[in-house]
Recover the amino acids of this structure.
């Protein structure tokens, strides 16, 4: 084994005013020539660990060593560090950013041209050298950030969530780029909240709430559950009910929808339930599939939640109608001469989940905002629960529950004050309001935070509170904008259990997500890319359109984007 | 709509109040400044001139110059006298601000006085401190006039008449009687606008704006909800001054509180209307703060507190008409010092009502159109 370029041992860091340690006795090595993954949900401690390695903050206990010396005393010119944000100067052009970093890192003028040429070539940014960094797309920004971190060939590359906000295609390119660098003998630390990226690393440290859950090759972790992940084909009609039954079965500790199949994880040393007990015809078969890193993570955390949603149990039944619950009819939105959404049309029947998929900046948020009345369309019409967004805006708003992408409740108000406000906002009167609030506190386990400022809660509870506020008035339509972004997989499962339960009660859900595997929960989804819908259909249809029926959703997505790019170039 | 005051309006008013009260920074900025300003403004922003040093260049050295110098030195406002013996030293003392004024007596001053020829006292003032210089000039004038009267008494052509001055409404010309009513205006203005200007901008900056706009609030409900806390805070601060005044400053309040409060509410509505306009067009709290700062300073300067409205150029007088503080300044001063009658209070209140209606209407129009 080669000597580690950097290592931490027994690292502990506690921030004042916080109950839990941000890092609790973490140990790991970063070896040259390898991709080391630092994996965990938001708030797990990834950024803190990276900042300690970069010598920006001191640990409380334990040691961080880089190139054989303490991280704070080492030769920092040999570290390439790409922070999560603010790494670039948005008002400088691509080449100016590179020059600035060359100055900062003391790159001798004679070496500059060669270094710039190599990096611009490598990141494919040569065409854009004069463009302002702020005007680049998310993927290009990350590539430029990487180039800036690499301007003087480092021995250690610290990347803090480089793939956030980047579309799947660019994510792959970025990954490949960094992997090539690692091949040259650089030690790379890649931090990520995407568990599928963890699978591709040479070695992984899995963090959760400051604790190290696992360290080692990802394969060794997934091998532990190798015969416990099963696929079960189900009729698309009742798949949510079957999933609920499966998750309520003590033999099954986790499950998700995968198009027209379920993906289930068995408890260790347990036989699977019979398909009949789940309400399926005899003859349905479980087939063993390759476990994923996420399955292993959930296993480490002790399994996901059960299948019955308390929220859905207490929800009113939304009356059946033939009228679609959400209609988008040729919605377009232009800002000046920039078209953010171009003739988006779809219709969602009552009691279905419809997904808006697409990279950041593609137009899915614009479409979403037009449908909940936050943006007036330049063209086209929309309606929610039968109310036209133009002529009956207030009624349309009363019929929808909205959960924003970022935490958007009142952080300075207590949890109870937030609940009181939203109960009032949707016109709930005294008795009804009290009942709805108490029920939400019960269902989302908010008791211990009731008097605290909402902003001080952990991310998972913030998201729970946001959902609680969105459904207090039991709306027939729910708009969820990236509801599970950054939360740990258990909270994600819990959310989907609630959503699935609500849909069975007749609620219609419009959801945006960049987790491609979550698109599998949708009854139908549309893929928005560069302001246009490039494909619409059931998850299985989308996969088939991409020419890969058994593919992962992400592969389908990438194939569709590539096809669209080709078409555009031809036109 | 069942009733106007339904759960929605109650919810947003309660929420806005909590937002102000739970934010420690907002709390401090609401409670501390009124108290600090109460004492700083009341005691430091005095319009009297005290403790000045006056220079003397006495080439005369006779009886009458000596008399005048003694009286000047004996005045309670004068800290001391500095004697010079050359014009160059005088210029230097004024330049370095050692003295605010220099009195210059020619060598034949006393002789002229004694001979009844009429004599002139030369005086140089530091024009950089124009206000204080004018006041010192007044002191000196009075002293010289006093000496002059004595000269006349000594040599009897009787004085044909004299002026017996009585200052109405403020018999002792106590500057506090002027500043305290003005402070009521300024403090309620500053506290209410600082709260309202942040209200919409904060929602945009914190990301709660979309959530608010998606809920079924009507625009008027949001605006009413956001205007209640600043109006209440402005009223609380004005009340604080009314309560503290009799114990600390003793400025009489001769008018009716039943006239004061309605007029105060109209004034606060007008100011929050202006603040709401600023908040609606701002995208960040910083922009809102700067925007409000850019408006409150002129509002303060054109209120009649800093300079009498009659003394400013005509076009600025016109601008001052659009300043609620100018109108409310007249009302408070009138109610404090002369027990202004209802009709006059009304005459000065309706322009503020017009400003309130216009600004609130424009703010709600902009609020709607910015929903795009």
């Amino acid at each position: 084994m080669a000597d580690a370029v950097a290592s931490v041992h027994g690292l502990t860091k506690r921030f004042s005013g916080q109950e839990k340690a941000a890092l609790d006795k973490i140990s790991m090595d970063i070896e040259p020539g390898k991709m080391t993954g630092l994996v965990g949900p938001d708030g797990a401690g990834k950024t803190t660990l990276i900042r300690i390695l970069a010598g920006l903050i001191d640990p409380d206990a334990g040691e961080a060593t880089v190139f054989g010396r303490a991280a704070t005393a080492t030769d920092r010119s040999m570290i390439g560090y790409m922070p999560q944000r603010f790494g670039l100067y948005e008002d400088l052009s691509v080449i100016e950013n590179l020059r600035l970093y060359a100055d900062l890192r003391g790159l001798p003028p004679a070496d500059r041209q060669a270094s710039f040429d190599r990096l611009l070539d490598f990141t494919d940014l040569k065409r854009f050298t004069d463009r302002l960094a702020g005007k680049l797309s998310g993927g290009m920004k990350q590539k430029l950030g990487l180039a800036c971190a690499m301007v003087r060939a480092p021995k250690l590359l610290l990347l803090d969530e480089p793939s956030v906000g980047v579309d799947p295609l660019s994510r792959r390119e970025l990954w490949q780029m960094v992997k090539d660098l690692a091949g040259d003998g650089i030690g790379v630390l890649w931090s990520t909240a995407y568990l599928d990226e963890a699978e591709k690393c040479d070695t992984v440290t899995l963090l959760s709430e400051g604790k190290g859950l696992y360290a080692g090759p990802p394969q060794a972790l997934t091998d532990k559950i190798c015969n416990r992940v099963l696929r079960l084909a189900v009729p698309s009609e009742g798949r949510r009910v079957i999933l609920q039954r499966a998750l309520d079965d003590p033999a099954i500790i986790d499950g998700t929808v995968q198009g027209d199949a379920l993906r289930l994880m068995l408890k260790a040393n347990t036989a699977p339930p019979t398909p009949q007990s789940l309400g399926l015809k005899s003859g349905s078969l479980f087939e063993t599939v390759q476990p994923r890193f996420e399955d292993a993570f959930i296993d480490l955390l002790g399994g996901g939640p059960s299948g019955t949603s308390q929220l859905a149990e207490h929800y009113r039944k939304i009356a059946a109608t033939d009228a679609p619950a959400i209609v988008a009819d040729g919605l377009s939105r232009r800002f000046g001469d920039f078209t953010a959404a171009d003739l988006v049309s779809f219709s969602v029947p009552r009691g279905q989940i419809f997904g808006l998929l697409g990279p950041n900046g593609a137009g899915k948020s614009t479409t979403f905002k037009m449908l909940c009345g936050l943006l007036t369309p330049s063209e086209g019409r929309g309606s929610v629960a039968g109310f036209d967004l133009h002529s009956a805006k207030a009624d349309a708003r009363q019929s929808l529950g909205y959960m924003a992408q970022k935490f958007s409740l009142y952080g300075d108000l207590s949890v109870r004050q937030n609940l009181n406000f939203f109960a009032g906002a949707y016109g709930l009167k005294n008795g009804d309001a009290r009942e709805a609030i108490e029920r939400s506190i019960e269902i989302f386990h908010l008791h211990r935070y009731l008097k605290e400022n909402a902003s001080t809660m952990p991310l998972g509870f913030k998201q729970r509170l946001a959902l609680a506020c969105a459904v207090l008035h039991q709306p027939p339509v729910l708009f969820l904008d990236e509801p599970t972004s950054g939360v740990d997989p258990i909270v994600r499962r819990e959310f989907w259990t609630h959503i699935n339960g609500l849909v069975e009660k007749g609620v219609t859900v419009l959801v945006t997500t960049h987790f491609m595997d979550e698109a599998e929960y949708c009854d139908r989804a549309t893929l928005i890319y560069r302001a246009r819908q490039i494909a619409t259909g059931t998850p299985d249809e989308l996969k088939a359109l991409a020419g890969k029926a058994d593919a992962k959703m992400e592969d389908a997505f990438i194939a569709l984007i590539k096809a669209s790019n080709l078409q555009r170039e031809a036109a | 709509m069942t009733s106007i005051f339904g759960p929605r309006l109650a919810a947003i008013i309660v929420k806005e109040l909590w937002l102000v009260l739970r934010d420690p920074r907002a709390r401090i900025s609401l409670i501390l400044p009124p108290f600090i300003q109460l004492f700083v403004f009341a005691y430091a922003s005095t319009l009297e001139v005290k403790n000045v040093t006056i220079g003397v260049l006495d080439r005369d050295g006779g009886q009458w110059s000596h008399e005048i110098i003694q009286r000047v030195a004996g005045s309670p406002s004068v800290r001391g006298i500095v004697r010079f013996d050359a014009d160059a030293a005088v210029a230097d003392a004024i330049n370095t601000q050692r003295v605010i004024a220099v009195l210059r007596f020619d060598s034949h001053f006393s002789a002229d006085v004694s001979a009844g020829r009429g004599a002139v006292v030369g005086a140089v003032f530091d024009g950089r401190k124009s206000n204080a210089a004018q006041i010192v000039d007044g002191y000196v004038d009075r002293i010289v006039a006093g000496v002059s009267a004595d000269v006349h008494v000594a040599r009897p052509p009787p004085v044909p008449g004299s002026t017996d001055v009585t200052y109405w409404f403020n018999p002792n010309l106590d500057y506090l009687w002027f500043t305290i009513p003005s402070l009521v205006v300024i403090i309620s203005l500053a506290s209410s606008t600082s709260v309202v200007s942040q209200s919409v901008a904060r929602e945009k900056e914190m990301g709660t704006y979309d959530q608010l706009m998606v809920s079924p609030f009507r625009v008027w409900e949001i605006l009413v909800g956001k205007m209640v806390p600043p109006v209440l805070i402005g009223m609380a601060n004005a009340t604080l001054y009314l309560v503290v005044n009799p114990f600390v400053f003793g400025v009489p309040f001769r008018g009716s509180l039943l006239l004061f409060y309605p007029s105060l509410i109209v004034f606060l509505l007008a100011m929050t209307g202006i603040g709401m306009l600023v908040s609606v067009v701002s995208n960040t709290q910083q922009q809102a703060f700067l925007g409000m700062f850019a408006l409150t300073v002129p509002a303060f300067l054109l209120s009649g507190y800093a300079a009498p409205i009659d003394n400013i150029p005509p076009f600025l007088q016109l601008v001052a008409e659009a300043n609620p503080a100018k109108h409310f300044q007249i009302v408070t001063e009138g109610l404090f010092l002369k027990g202004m009658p209802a009709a006059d209070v009304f005459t000065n209140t309706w322009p503020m009502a017009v400003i309130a209606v216009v600004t609130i209407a424009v703010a709600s129009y902009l609020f709607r159109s910015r929903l795009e």
